[in-house]
Write a structure and sequence with these properties.
The structure holds two protein chains of two kinds.
Chain A lengths: L16 H6 L4 H9 L2 H11 L11 H6 L9 E6 L8 H8 L1 H15 L3 E6 L4 H16 L15 E6 L9 H8 L25 E5 H13 L1 H5 L9 E8 L5 E6 L4 H7 L9 E9 L4 E2 L2 H4 L5 H6 L8 E6 L4 H15 L5 H18 L5 H12 L9 H26 L11
Parallel strand pairs in A: 1-2, 1-4, 2-3, 5-9
Antiparallel strand pairs in A: 5-6, 7-8, 7-9
Chain B lengths: L1 H4 L1 H10 L7 H12 L4 H10 L4 H10 L16 E6 L2 H4 L3 H12 L12 E6 L11 E3 L2 E3 L4 H20 L1
Parallel strand pairs in B: 1-2
Antiparallel strand pairs in B: 1-3, 3-4
Helix pairs in contact in B: 3-4, 4-5
Classes of the chains: A alpha/beta, B alpha+beta.
């Protein structure tokens, strides 16, 4: 299959503007700007059924349509803060197919008539931001970014902005605050980013993930109907699956939505050392873990099918764990991550992530009783649905789901007073 | 002073945003690079450049992990700041063991700096390179698919470079 997103796998130099142009690059932007009105572009993207690839899976065209038409100042913000453990797709897109990301962002900007596009990259993508700046300049020279784009009266700037190390800035309102020079803490909604008072500089703003936007040029060139033929009815299109953990060839794999976990593991070279799959995190550290049963392995990777097995597709950051994995240790790792990344704004998350980490560390060191397993589940349950952003829920998920599916392992730690085997996991 | 030395760079940064406040993060990076970290006077300088209260700038520098402050005890980060990802996906591929070996090899604890001031080693949260574990970030550049053999060679290379700079 030819890739729609990871096109550098088919055309190795596609990151260069001339190569990208020779291979249909910026045709989507040209078609959008020269042949369609803004409303038509929004309608095409809506009809395509494209859903946000950053995790929430919301309809992209719908999101664009929420922007007030005649409002004078509007923005597009590209969420390139990719920080979820297990996620590394946006990085590959920006590194090896950067113009497609810029093109997608510019089409979004045309659709809502934005004044400027800001690409917010996590600080660690320092090198990528430098390369993207060059790509933007090249696009500007060709009249694809900046003043009077493609000779029309539409002008729109495109800039990169670097974060400085904070997972929370992947949350769209925290990201907007960070871009405004504030600390990266989420905002109370409403107003939502698309509304007056809710976006960047409090102006109406579309915030889209890198991969979402990379789909858009193809959709404009080939049409909504062609896009809907890929994937499933409710989950159209292709998706980049980030496969990590105990497989032979971890990496990014682009497939139509609807392939099964089993097929994905096979595509990634199968299980390492021929071991059995014990557990899967389908959406990084923040979604619930599921056991590697036949039912799970045969589940198609779509938004709706993955939801039916009590977890989420999210950004499709599939972490595979084999039969030797200690699930209490895995939960401890994730608890440590969320304790570090809680921004401190909401009490249930700030305190809850701390206590989850304390209790599970004690349990892991063999200093806990059976009651502490209940305590863990209780603290986690009290973090759900009570915070401004989803980080509180995310932090609770790995604990609640490992206790649910692998309770015996927690109990074994208590009963055996098993000493820690991996010292550095508890710091 | 940053305002004179980086006049062009600062003007370019300012041209990107409708609000001066948005320049605080890029300016903190410039100050940090220039002064080898952030201290009271560099934070004040950045505050002045973006028309903010120094306390606010300090809050921002404290919130984000890629800014560091030179503390009163004279603690400085090593020339090479090695941040090893030990989050779950990397740990499933041996990152914990790699991290321990690296600490042992350099004779430091997590977060410590070698006596010669060359290396600071610490664990860090996910760097979006889970498929290339073990990996680390050295002064904001990624080194991937590592093992101790490759790492030892790299450390020797850096030491040789430093020596060369000293002599040259």
């Amino acid at each position: 299959m030819e890739h729609i997103l990871l096109r550098s796998r088919d055309i190795s130099d596609i990151r260069k503007l001339d190569v990208y142009l020779r291979n249909g690059g910026y045709e989507g932007l040209k078609k959008a700007v020269l042949e369609h009105t803004s409303d038509q572009v929004i309608q095409i993207v809506k009809d395509s059924g494209l859903r946000g690839r950053g995790g929430a899976g919301f309809s992209t065209g719908m999101k664009w349509s929420f922007i007030p038409r005649d409002y004078p100042v509007k923005y597009v913000v590209v969420n390139a803060d990719e920080s979820e453990p297990g996620t590394f797709k946006d990085r590959e897109l920006m590194e090896f197919n950067p113009h497609q990301v810029i093109e997608g962002a510019m089409i979004a900007a045309y659709a809502i008539k934005a004044r400027a596009v800001y690409i917010y990259l996590r600080g660690e993508f320092w090198d990528i931001a430098g390369d993207l700046d060059q790509c933007i300049e090249q696009a500007r020279e060709k009249g694809l970014v900046g003043q009077n784009i493609l000779g029309t009266d539409w002008s729109c700037e495109c800039y990169t902005h670097l974060g400085a190390g904070a997972y929370i800035c992947g949350e769209e309102t925290a990201l907007l605050n960070s871009l405004q020079g504030l600390i990266g803490q989420p905002r109370v909604r409403p107003p939502f980013p698309a509304q007056v008072g809710g976006g960047l500089y409090y102006e109406p703003t579309v915030v889209n993930n890198v991969e979402t936007l990379a789909n858009v040029p193809w959709i404009i060139v080939n049409g909504a109907e062609a896009y809907k033929k890929i994937g499933t009815e409710k989950s159209p299109g292709t998706k980049i699956f980030c496969v990590s953990g105990h497989v032979n060839n971890p990496g990014n794999y682009e497939f139509p939505l609807g392939i099964t976990f089993r097929q994905l593991i096979e595509a990634a070279g199968g299980m390492r050392d021929g071991k059995k799959c014990k557990a899967i995190l389908p959406s990084g550290a923040s979604g619930p873990v599921v056991p590697g049963t036949d039912k799970v392995l045969d589940t198609p990777l779509t938004y709706e099918d993955v939801a039916a097995i009590d977890t989420v597709l999210g950004s499709a950051s599939v972490i595979i764990m084999d039969e030797d994995t200690d699930m209490v240790w895995a939960a401890l790792k994730m608890a440590r991550f969320f304790k570090h990344e809680s921004c401190g704004k909401c009490t249930p998350c700030r305190e809850g992530t701390y206590w989850l980490y304390r209790v599970i560390s004690d349990l892991y060191k063999g200093n806990a009783t059976l009651k502490d397993i209940e305590l863990l589940a209780d603290v986690a349950a009290n973090m759900q649905g009570v915070t401004i952003c989803a980080l509180g829920d995310f932090a609770a998920n790995p604990i609640l789901s490992t206790v649910k599916h692998f309770r015996a392992e927690y109990e074994a730690y208590v009963k055996a007073q098993k000493p820690a085997t991996v010292a550095s996991a508890a710091d | 002073m940053l305002a004179e030395k980086y006049a062009d760079k600062i003007a370019k940064i300012r041209s990107k945003y409708p609000d001066l406040r948005s320049t605080v993060m890029p300016l903190l990076y410039i100050a940090q690079e220039e002064y080898g970290g952030l201290d009271e006077s560099s934070l004040r300088e950045v505050a002045e450049l973006c028309d903010l209260d120094p306390t606010e700038v300090k809050t921002i520098a404290g919130f984000y992990t890629m800014y560091w402050e030179n503390d009163e005890k004279g603690y400085k980060k090593g020339k090479y700041w090695l941040q090893v990802c030990t989050d779950l996906p990397c740990a499933l591929r041996g990152a914990d063991q790699f991290f321990e070996q690296l600490l042992d090899h350099l004779g430091v604890e997590d977060g410590g700096t070698t006596e010669d001031g060359m290396f600071t080693v610490e664990h860090v949260m996910c760097l979006a390179a889970c498929d290339k574990a073990p990996m680390l970030q050295c002064n904001f550049h990624f080194l991937e698919n590592l093992d101790m053999e490759k790492m030892k060679a790299k450390i020797e290379e850096w030491r040789a470079e430093a020596k060369e700079r000293e002599n040259g």
